[in-house]
């Protein structure tokens, strides 16, 4: 199943393996890929994966999470073109395939260098207090669709095959989905709370040619109690009523791929990346979190059969990684299988699988060290299997 090609519209995808967007905080300050960034993506090109989903790319300077976040601009366009050309050449030479490259477009909102919040969220603000001055105005939000359009057009010019209008993990669009108590055009009703996300999707769709993929990575549920989280009840139980309404509208506006995620890594990281070691003892088992992913993905696949669904959460499985991936595809839980932390730890896992040399001992340990590096303000990568990041990790533990 992991070798079976598929089609998204008129586009042929070599296989269902997706390397998920993994932010390294390692671009140059102008947003262009640095040598460290490029090295990571060259490894992705050598992996044999059918789809490489590039990391979070800020659509504007004020929407960056850090000064080294990826940001495609007119001034650095040639750097992206060069990297994509090199990646395509490598994949063609080594595997005879043409991978799909998707660029994730984002505004970091609350997690921007200077926080830009949709509303006051007392749950999130226990860890990062903000003032009323950090609340974005309706006028500012009105300006964002054109920023997404500009980034999408640059992505097309750079040679990407599609873009992801991102709404997940507590960033701006995702936070607006739970802005029940915000006043004005972007708060209160479901129509208002989903307005900006859908407006940006529609604006991007109208600006790109047929054949250019429109996708989204969506936190289907924040797993934060309503009214401070989306896709949940006041008791913090999963509620897919509004997510279903949202997905229906996303499809109507042209979204072809839904890359599923759940939770907010700044608040409940055990939800969206079950771990063996992390910052706190998780309140549920990893198996419970993995089962939630599957249940959500299967629900979406059954309810919206024309939508291409990317499954997540697989990196935890380690020894059973390939078996679980094959099973999910066979049972139609999802159409494509996404691997995040896994490809940072073991970028050759799929190539080794094809060659009968897959080694579980090289798989991600789900130890959270890559996240610790990021939270410490360092560049991020696997601090277990990559010597560069392993040495860097030692410096933050002194």
Structure description:
This protein is α/β, with parallel strands linked by helices. It has helices at 35-45, 77-95, 138-142, 144-158, 172-176, 190-193, 195-207, 241-252, 269-272, 286-303, 321-330, 341-345, 349-354, 369-375, 387-396, and strands at residues 6-8, 11-13, 17-19, 51-58, 100-106, 162-165, 213-219, 257-261, 308-311, 336-339. Strands 3-4-5-6-7-8-9-10 form an eight-stranded parallel barrel, surrounded by five helices. A two-stranded antiparallel ribbon has the order 1-2. Helix 1 runs parallel beside helix 2 (77-95) and helix 4 runs parallel beside helix 7. The longest helix is centred in the N-terminal third of the chain and has 19 residues, at 77-95. It starts with 5 loop residues before the first strand and ends with a helix. The model has no long low-confidence stretch (mean pLDDT 97).
Strands, total number: 10
Annotation field: number of helices: 15
List SSEs in N-to-C order. EEEHEHEHHEHHHEHEHHEHEHHHH
What sort of overall outline do the alpha carbons produce when their principal axes are compared? globular
Question: In angstroms, what is the radius of gyration?
Answer: 19 Å
Largest sheet: 8 strands, parallel, barrel
Termini separation comes to 45 Å
- Work out the helicity level: 25-40%
What fraction strand? 5-15%
> How do the strands line up in the largest sheet?
3-4-5-6-7-8-9-10
Low-confidence stretches: none
Task: Decide which structural class fits the backbone.
Answer: alpha/beta
Average pLDDT rating: 97
């Amino acid at each position: 199943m992991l070798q079976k090609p598929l089609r998204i519209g008129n586009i042929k995808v070599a296989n269902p393996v997706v390397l998920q967007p993994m932010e390294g905080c390692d671009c140059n300050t102008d947003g262009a890929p640095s040598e460290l960034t490029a090295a990571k993506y060259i490894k992705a090109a050598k992996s044999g994966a059918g789809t490489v989903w590039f990391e979070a790319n800020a659509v504007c300077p004020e929407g960056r999470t850090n000064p080294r976040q990826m940001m495609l601009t007119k001034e650095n366009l040639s750097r992206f073109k060069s990297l994509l050309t090199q990646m395509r050449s490598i994949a063609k030479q080594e595997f005879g395939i043409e991978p799909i490259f998707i660029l994730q477009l984002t505004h970091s909102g609350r997690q921007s260098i200077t926080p830009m919040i949709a509303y006051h969220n007392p749950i999130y603000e226990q860890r990062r207090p903000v003032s009323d001055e950090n609340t974005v105005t309706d006028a500012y939000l009105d300006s964002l669709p054109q920023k997404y359009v500009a980034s999408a057009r640059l992505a097309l010019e750079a040679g990407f095959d599609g873009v992801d209008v991102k709404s997940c993990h507590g960033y701006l669009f995702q936070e607006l989905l739970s802005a029940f108590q915000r006043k004005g055009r972007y708060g209160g009703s479901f129509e208002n709370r989903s307005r900006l996300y859908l407006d940006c999707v529609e604006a991007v769709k109208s600006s790109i040619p047929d054949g250019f993929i429109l996708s989204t990575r969506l936190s289907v549920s924040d797993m934060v109690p309503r009214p401070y989280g989306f896709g949940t009840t006041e008791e913090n139980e999963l509620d897919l009523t509004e997510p279903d309404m949202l997905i229906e509208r996303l499809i109507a506006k042209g979204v072809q791929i839904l890359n599923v995620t759940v939770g907010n890594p700044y608040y409940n990281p055990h939800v969206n990346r079950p771990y063996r070691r992390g910052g706190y003892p998780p309140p549920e088992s990893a198996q419970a979190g993995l089962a939630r992913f599957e249940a959500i993905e299967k629900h979406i696949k059954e309810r919206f059969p024309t939508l291409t669904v990317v499954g997540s959460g697989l990196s935890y499985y380690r020894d059973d990684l390939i078996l679980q991936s094959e099973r999910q595809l066979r049972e139609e839980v999802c159409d494509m299988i996404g691997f995040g932390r896994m490809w940072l730890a073991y970028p050759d896992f799929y190539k080794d699988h094809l060659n009968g040399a897959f080694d579980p001992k090289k798989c991600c340990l789900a130890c959270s060290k890559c996240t610790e590096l990021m939270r410490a303000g360092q560049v991020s990568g696997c601090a277990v299997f990559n010597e560069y990041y392993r040495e860097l990790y030692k410096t933050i533990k002194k």
